[in-house]
Protein: DNA-directed DNA polymerase
Organism: Aphis craccivora
Amino acid sequence: MPKNGFSWYEGDLSVKNILKLLENSNETSDIGFSLKVDIAYPKSLHDDHNDLPYLPERIIPTGSKIKKLVANLKPKKNYVVHYMALKQALKAGLILEKVHRVLKFNQSPWLAKYIELNTNMRKNASNDFEKDFFKLMNNAVFGKTMENVRNRMNLKLVSDEKACTKLINRNTFKDIKIYNNNLVAVHLFMDVLKFDKPIYAGFSILDISKTLIYDFHYNCMVKSYGADIQLMYTDTDSLIYYIKTADFYADLTNKPNILNRMDTSNFPTSLPCFCNDRKKVPGTFTDETFGEIIEEFIALRAKSYAYKIVGQEEKIKAKGIRGHPDRGREMAVEQFKHTGCPTNEYTPFRVNISLRSYKHEVKTISTIKLALNRKDDKRVVLENQINTLAHGHFRIEEAEELEREDVELVEMMEGCEY
């Protein structure tokens, strides 16, 4: 991970030289790099990489108004990337077209001992509180590396009218909240911002963690199952697969390249692939169904899916909808199916109960929310309303071009005189 010695690389920025520089670097090198580059995504890779394109980026998807992190097949311009993520993408067939700038730095595993300490403490934890606590101790450090200090503010509680007027007249004044006739809160921008957060560490953690996901997907799962595997859903650090096989858990005993990257300590001890050796080891994958089989799965969009486990209750994930008792009764796999059907005008609005703080008073709020939404603007949904294409796929462009040609032909025919 980056440590110190940050400076702009002053050598030759030609593609040939940078490729050689990357070839001579690995994850344990004393010197690391962050690069701003242009990348081409060859059409020949689009079908193979459609499920999980390399180098995701924040873009405004078609039909959306805000930027979202989207894994797409579009060419990348001025893309900032860690050298390990770039090496992985280039090895997969992406093409480096231009290098704008390169930042070099000294690197070392300076956070490793702290992470290992919390991991071991979590591994030996005897209750859920300790497990969550030591997990949070690691996650909190990452959060601080990515903190945007520009979002900080000064808050002044004032009960004097003159003092309040004085604060409002400051050029750092942002907002005011009136609690009563004798108390107001004045929000002020910071007078001085100190950029003392190691954002370079958070950036590197994000990019390196992505390489683990891509390596597991392409070099383990796809390599082992080929055409018999399909990625149905992914979100940050999770993958849900449809695999054509008699028994995946039996397969693991014969596929050490997959088994060695999985934490199977939560499996039933009766399964031959059960093992405690990789319990809570960072970088390993955990089966959230504890070795049980998913018999039905449906996903509508990011953070909105449901599935059935053989012989068990349905599991529902719906971001923004609180887990009150009504949710389990009113939201199920069947409701997800109805929502996903394009010919069905089913719009599942639900009462959502939550705790909110207004003017430092905690209140129970009841709102009507659209619980399920089939519009997934991070992918392009095909006519069968099941399969999707990643943004930038050449088949989307071909379909749009044919549609434009049809429109032009109709306009020409309408303009002809007979």
In short: The chain is about 30% helix and 30% strand. Residues 306 and 367 are 23 Å apart (CA to CA).
